[in-house]
Amino acid sequence: LACLAALNIIANPLKKDLLIADFGTILSITKLNSNGSIIGGQLIPGFLTQLKSMEQNTKNLKIPKKYDIPTKDFLINTDEAILKGVINSLTGVINSSFNPLQDILITCGGDSKFLTKFLKNETANIINAPNLVMEGMIIHHRSLNSYSNPRSATI
């Protein structure tokens, strides 16, 4: 649905590929070529999913109470080290997949506003559209209605 919305609402005059990063429970990355065909994707545990996994699968790690992401790369404090590691895992996969010369990066999902600011690439080619999936649902619903009721398409 995010792909459908991106193709319909994102201006792409230079005909670049679209890289859609849906930051939710799972970070879902989908790449579309400039013609709108799906090239493929990747699935990575999302921000809170990674934090919960560390708490559930280790003896002494807990989810940090605050999400103040440190700027330093290597930390002594456990909570800060956990947060920095999770942020780096999510932004690292985006930064390694995103080529600003070839792609437009579209971030969406519940964590997109929070996580987009940690991406290190050129912000000119990054669009944050947090409700992209919902917009895709609306576009899809309208297209279904226009097929089932041809008159509704002209109203």
β-strand percent reads: 15-25%
Q: What is the rounded distance between the termini?
A: 24 Å
The coarse overall form would be: globular
Element string (H = helix, E = strand) = HEEEHHEHEH
Q: Which segments are poorly predicted (pLDDT under 50) over 5 or more consecutive residues?
A: none
Number of continuous helical runs: 5
**Sheet with the most strands: spatial strand order:** 3-2-1-4-5
Biggest beta sheet summary: 5 strands, mixed
Q: What labels describe this entry?
A:
5-stranded mixed beta sheet; alpha/beta; single chain; globular; 155 residues
Walk me through the topology.
Layout: H1 2-9, E1 17-23, E2 26-32, E3 38-45, H2 47-57, H3 78-97, E4 103-108, H4 112-116, E5 126-128, H5 132-148
Parallel strand pairs: 1-4, 4-5
Antiparallel strand pairs: 1-2, 2-3
Helix pairs in contact: 1-5
Give a written overview of the molecule:
With about 160 residues, this protein is of the alpha/beta class. The protein is built from five helices and five strands; from the N terminus they run H-E-E-E-H-H-E-H-E-H. Strand 2 (about 25-30) and strand 3 form a beta hairpin. Helix 1 crosses helix 5 (about 130-150). The longest helix has 20 residues, at about 80-95.
